[in-house]
Amino acid sequence: MIEMNQIKAGMTETIQKRVTESDTSLNYGSGKIENLLATPRIVSLMIEASSMLIDPLLPEGFVSVGKHVEVDHYKATCLGATVTVEVRVDYAASGKVILSMNAYDEHGKIAEGKHSRMIVNYKKLMERANERDMEAKKD
């Protein structure tokens, strides 16, 4: 069992990012929308904040990996705006962390969601991934 004493419900992390052209929907395959923040970019920022909160607290040789993400994006954010992402640990036990995530721009809340991450041994993760890859290449 992994020691997770340092990760506690209520812990938070906040990050900010100014929306640039590389963050827009056009760069994420969303058709012709070139001046609005892309939903996948919001999700990426949420996952980044989650990792920043959890990973520094893990024992040597362990990392967190995403297991599930669910996000509602309900307000458009324009190029040049600043996005603030806040994540909060809701649950942490038995190698699992569940987080609440919220995103805001200067005008209010733009997205919210839940994210679950599993704490795994990095070396074992890579061994399993490489074994799976080798098995697939045999076929």
From TrEMBL:
InterPro entries documented for this protein: FlK (IPR025540), FlK-like_dom (IPR054485), HotDog_dom_sf (IPR029069)
CDD domains reported in the protein's UniProt record: hot_dog (cd03440)
Residues annotated as domain Fluoroacetyl-CoA-specific thioesterase-like: 19-122
Coiled-coil boundaries: none
Name by which UniProt lists this protein: Thioesterase
